[in-house]
Amino acid sequence: MASELSQVDAAAVRAAADRIAPFVHRTPVHTSRRWDDHLGARLFFKCENFQVGGAFKARGAFNAVWSLGEQEAARGVATHSSGNHGAALALAAARRGIPAWVVVPRDASGFKRRAIERYGARVVACEPGISNREARLAALVEDCGATVVHPYDDDRVIAGQGTTALELLAQAPGIDLLLAPVGGGGLIAGCAVMARDLRPDIAVVAAEPAGADDCWQSMQRGERVRLEQVDTVADGLRASIGSRNWSLISRLVDEVVRVEEEEIIAATRLAWEVLKVVIEPSSAVPLAALLSGRLPVRGRRVGVVLSGGNVEVEGLAGRLSTCGLEFRL
Amino acid sequence: MASELSQVDAAAVRAAADRIAPFVHRTPVHTSRRWDDHLGARLFFKCENFQVGGAFKARGAFNAVWSLGEQEAARGVATHSSGNHGAALALAAARRGIPAWVVVPRDASGFKRRAIERYGARVVACEPGISNREARLAALVEDCGATVVHPYDDDRVIAGQGTTALELLAQAPGIDLLLAPVGGGGLIAGCAVMARDLRPDIAVVAAEPAGADDCWQSMQRGERVRLEQVDTVADGLRASIGSRNWSLISRLVDEVVRVEEEEIIAATRLAWEVLKVVIEPSSAVPLAALLSGRLPVRGRRVGVVLSGGNVEVEGLAGRLSTCGLEFRL
């Protein structure tokens, strides 16, 4: 298994911020007195569900696509993605006027797959599982010659995702704990780099579904674990962390908190009903860590990345109706 | 039937804005390139779903409660409400430290009734229908001596709701059409007063469910119509317009557009899935007017008030699953 180290530093994140500024939103930060009162903390929700393409993924994808030289760009870009990175790459490629191919596993959200197509990329189906995704992508680029922009194990992507923390810490001063979901690890790794540079004492915590807990397992063992079989409603977090991501996470992330499926679903509902923002289940994983009490935050100022909002209402509602857990504020 | 004329003018709205500024949010304005491309227009969504209490109603309620003299305030306030005004009045009363009573019809949303209770008001149930609501409220205030803050037929409330337009026209310059839902008419009346003062040429359009179309019927007949029987998923728009509201609407509103139930439901879904904001069906009524083509807006700059976001996800999802209509952008 290849083990590449990331070279991403705060300067790379700042350069990414300049590069993507013309294309992405500086998303708002929302707060909730009711939520704060319940937890005895101050929460600052970074609303990446309002980002271009409905998820933070635009940050990394635009940074990668606009980092390419002219000749390389002209051959197009390709990736594998459960959805949001694919959509973001399609948008970035369309904006640069180059072709994009996206390998999408068959268990991905149909809602997300349709977005990738709508944004103009060609969708190539594959079987689920990280090995299948990577094998299909390798075969594809051999055919079409496109440049791979990996959904997370890519320094340009990691640096782009880190701009989320750069903005959040400027928008909400005094944050002493940064909380984000972890799937492949691009978001938490980039944010950890940036946050630790801005505020060396900040705590950085990743939240992960117990049904796809490769990051937690990796932290326990002290080496990167890859899982072929995962099971979680948080469809954006089914990937296993990449080697570059692990090189940053293992050094900069303080803790990984695992949450259960019903906690994710109940937290999604509460975000919709209390914050009035549509977030997808992957984005509710950090909220589940807070609401379940698995991550105590009393007295702290917590930055929470709401990573995306690409979800089909009815599908999720079906899960809500069978969920036996309800969080209350 | 009593027929009071409103005295609300732009100065009253500006005074309300100053009075409520310490208590309410200056809500954000969202845009959607996808939505704009589809309609060939520029839309500016005023997100009152993020307002204190989850709806624009806080504006009118805080203005009314903080307009009261000390002695009057001390006896408390009372109202009838399908939900959002009751919650807003409860919040305003709690903030001023005075009691609040809210008459709630039995067909009101349980989600909204629980919010009223959570905010500390006493809930009094009544049968549905505007006459029943008003009779129960009259009996109640005779008992408790509280001051009635009517949900819409009250100049302090109308002036407060008008601050929505004051903010929106400052946040999104160049708007030439203002679109808001109409139920009792507080929002559209206050907004019409303010918008016409700021921009005399602006078009002001009200959107109304066909199943509760008293405003449309009133415009047709040239006199105020009250309906006892209404049927719409837009639970915030079941009330009939008040006499003060009518005195403004009949003079300042250009057009009332009616929409069907399935259009409301399909528009709600699209707001959730595309704008990523949770809005309640009442707030989707203006969107339904746009998406259905009943209100052509090509080439225009349209301010749209998303009036509130107090909705139980599962209940609405059940409606979505049986809705035969789907709008696509």
Question: Could you list some keywords that capture this structure?
Answer:
homodimer, 329 residues, alpha/beta, Rossmann fold, four-stranded parallel sheet, 14 helices, 10 strands, 15% strand
**Number of folding domains of chain A?**
2
Please tell me the overall pLDDT of chain A. Answer: 95
The spatial strand order of the largest sheet of chain A comes to 1-2-10-7-8-9
Overall form of chain A: globular
User: What integer value in Å does the Rg of chain A equal?
Assistant: 18 Å
Oligomer: homodimer
Tally of individual helices of chain A: 14
* Unreliable residue stretches of chain A: none
- Name of the level-1 CATH class of the largest domain in chain A: Alpha Beta
Percent range of helical residues of chain A: 40-55%
